[in-house]
Specification:
Strand content: 35-45%
CATH topology of the largest domain: Immunoglobulin-like
Strand order of the largest sheet: 5-4-8-2-1-11-14-13
Distance between the termini: 79 Å
Largest sheet: 8 strands, mixed
CATH superfamily of the largest domain: tricorn interacting facor f3 domain
Shape: elongated
Helix content: 10-25%
Number of domains: 4
CATH architecture of the largest domain: Sandwich
Bound molecules: zinc ion
Radius of gyration: 32 Å
Number of strands: 36
């Protein structure tokens, strides 16, 4: 059902008007869990419209609708409402409504809490207030008046303009002058809130813990000013610096819920421990103020722009507080989480299936994709690409190609290949590798064979660092892989004793060392083995090619003279066995040599 709604909304976007402003003026009564009031939508109509549409959950009754002050008739089909009549270019809709919301705004013992993204939904804003429920159309500003029974403290987006006491009830007037997406509008009210405040660069930090968690939240948010400093330095100043930042405790879905409401993150009870244990979750939600709130993914197929980014911000903050080791141990955890989800269902990061929208492929592989982009572009370019993206789309919405363009503008060339394989296609590379050294009298030639053996995924193009070590020397070099099977050669002045592929683990992958020289391999690596040794009349051997291609097989004597031309021509991928007569070969030691574009192999045998 959710899927149908999404499909419907996606088709009608861009719609016929631009939302300028939302006003939500509600009385929220936790006894008996009802809301009543007015939702205001101000819009700018493109061209002369004879009707205007918006969304409101069908659980809520509409008492009347006014268009520019006059009561108008309306038609309702499930969650969509159409208002008829000539629509002025600048119009204001006021929707008088009441009822018990079945989603979007939830009541429980601790109070009432909004959540427009739920574990099984992405568009629940209209389930509690009238709006055009699509990320693609952010309001330029919003104003809220929430009236709740005395004793409740009510937190919302932006700044608190005033509180008016009516005796048994209080009204909290909040407003924001920043653009805001529907799902980031939040209200949170509890008679157990104990607000405490702090500040950063003169901007208020407001926190709303439950009574029993006051000390714990105070301790958990100690690092918030440092997070704001750190992310502001990396991405540009905290976007809502004229208003505030804060966390409001919530206990939806067992307390595990956290949502990046603009300027007021909802933090589930689970995350409030007083130990700082979940500091990276606080960083994740705070970083969403840039990635998700300031720049909102235009529609959910582009959710990576929100969640991959915020997940990578966990890694960045880990690097900030604990160095590369802490960052890499987090990325390692992300990798296993992604691998386990990928084993159940493989799909691209772009346009993930609904049930995996909030899963490890989008979040954890998504974080890795940014880490790899940082490796491809280099630190300076990568971070200026993020700034460039924030500057060019801040306050609005974006799709993945917008971020790609911002990155390419800094990088100076196309990154299509990167986005194609990591965002629009599924899976990851699985490498088999092997390496050989030949001693050329004082100098050494090292051949590294790399083969991508993944199924159900493309052949990946990536720069990969190779580290070759000797007794006292180390060589670090970066090669570009772009074929299924490849060989890389180094001439070395030292005897290599070790080789590491991607020693700093910049690339999301699985990798396995395979013995290709001495053992048959089913992966189809280059391989040659003599099956009859010593031999008298017929030489049998087997060889394996990594791909279709040209190969030559010749027998030489120990002096290097050609003794027998066995085969020269095209051969297919895989293992081949051959048996050839050795007519005319005198007893002695010979060498069977295989030459191919993947390298050369030699095997000794004796004729008696
Ligand atoms: Zn997130």
């Amino acid at each position: 059902m959710i899927g149908l709604i999404i499909a419907l909304l996606s088709q009608v976007f861009p719609h016929s008007y631009d939302v300028k402003f939302y006003g939500i003026y509600l009385t929220i009564d936790p006894d008996p869990d009802t809301i009543f009031g007015v939702g205001e939508i101000r819009g700018f109509a493109y061209g002369g419209l004879d009707s205007v549409d918006f969304h409101l959950g069908s659980a809520l009754a509409v008492d009347s609708v006014r268009l520019n002050g006059s009561v108008v008739s309306f038609r309702r089909l499930e969650d969509t409402i159409w208002v008829s009549g000539p629509v002025p270019q600048d119009f204001t809709l006021e929707v008088f409504y009441h009822g018990h919301p079945t989603a979007g705004l939830y009541f429980n013992y601790w109070g009432f809490f909004s959540a427009c993204l739920s574990p099984d939904g992405v568009k629940d804003a209209h389930q509690w207030y009238p709006c055009y429920d699509h990320n693609g159309d952010k309001a330029d500003s919003a104003r809220f008046a929430y009236t709740a029974p005395k004793g409740f403290d009510v937190a919302a987006n932006g700044i608190l303009d005033s509180v008016v006491d009516h005796g048994d009830w209080k009204t909290f007037y909040w407003s924001t002058r920043y653009p805001i997406a529907n799902y980031l509008i939040a209200v949170s009210g509890s008679n157990y809130y104990v607000k405490f405040t702090d500040s950063w660069r003169g901007m208020p930090l407001w926190y709303y813990p439950f009574t029993y968690d006051t000390a714990d939240l105070r301790s958990d948010v100690q690092a918030v000013p440092d997070m704001l400093d750190y992310f502001s330095a990396l991405f540009g100043d905290y976007p809502f610096i004229d208003e505030k930042f804060g966390y409001a405790e919530s206990n939806l879905w067992g307390g595990g819920f956290a949502l990046e409401h603009q300027t007021l993150v909802a933090m589930g009870t689970y995350w409030v421990t007083g130990t700082g244990y979940h500091i990276l979750t606080y960083a994740h939600e705070l970083s969403h103020q840039w990635w998700g709130d300031w720049i909102t993914c235009q529609d959910w197929p582009h959710v990576w722009l929100n969640e991959g980014f915020a997940s990578y911000c966990e890694a960045l903050y880990a690097e900030h507080i604990g160095g590369i080791q802490k960052r890499d141990s987090l990325l390692n955890k992300f990798k296993s989480q992604y691998f386990s989800e990928d084993a159940q269902a493989r799909f691209p990061i772009y346009d993930p299936p609904m049930q995996y929208m909030w899963g490890h492929t989008v979040y954890k592989k998504g974080a890795w994709v940014l880490h790899m982009l940082r490796w491809v572009m280099g630190d300076a370019n990568f971070f200026s690409a993020l700034k460039n993206y924030a500057d060019s789309h801040g306050g609005g919405t974006a799709i993945i190609p917008d971020f790609q363009a911002a990155a390419e503008a800094v990088y100076g060339s196309s990154l299509d290949w990167f986005f194609q394989e990591w965002i629009y296609e599924a899976g990851y590379p699985e490498f088999n590798y092997n390496w050989f050294v030949s001693d050329a009298g004082g100098s050494y030639e090292l051949n590294l064979y790399l083969r991508q053996v993944q199924d159900n995924a493309p052949v990946f193009i990536m720069p990969i660092e190779i580290m070759i070590t000797g007794a006292t020397d180390t060589l670090r070099d970066t090669v570009w892989v772009n074929e299924r099977a490849e060989r890389f050669t180094w001439k070395l002045s030292f005897a290599p004793s070790g080789l590491a592929v991607d020693p700093c683990e910049w690339v999301l992958k699985k990798i396995r060392y395979t013995e290709v020289a001495e053992n048959p391999v089913d992966e189809g690596f280059l391989f040659l083995r003599v099956l009859t040794n010593p031999v008298s009349s017929r030489l049998s051997f087997s060889y394996c090619l990594p791909e279709d291609g040209a190969v030559s097989l010749r027998v030489y004597d120990v002096a290097g003279r050609l003794a027998l031309d066995v085969f020269s021509g095209q051969a297919s991928v895989g293992t081949h066995e051959m048996s050839v007569p050795l007519d005319g070969l005198r007893p002695g030691v010979y060498i069977l040599r295989l030459r191919s574009k993947w390298g050369s192999l030699s095997r000794k045998f004796a004729v008696y």
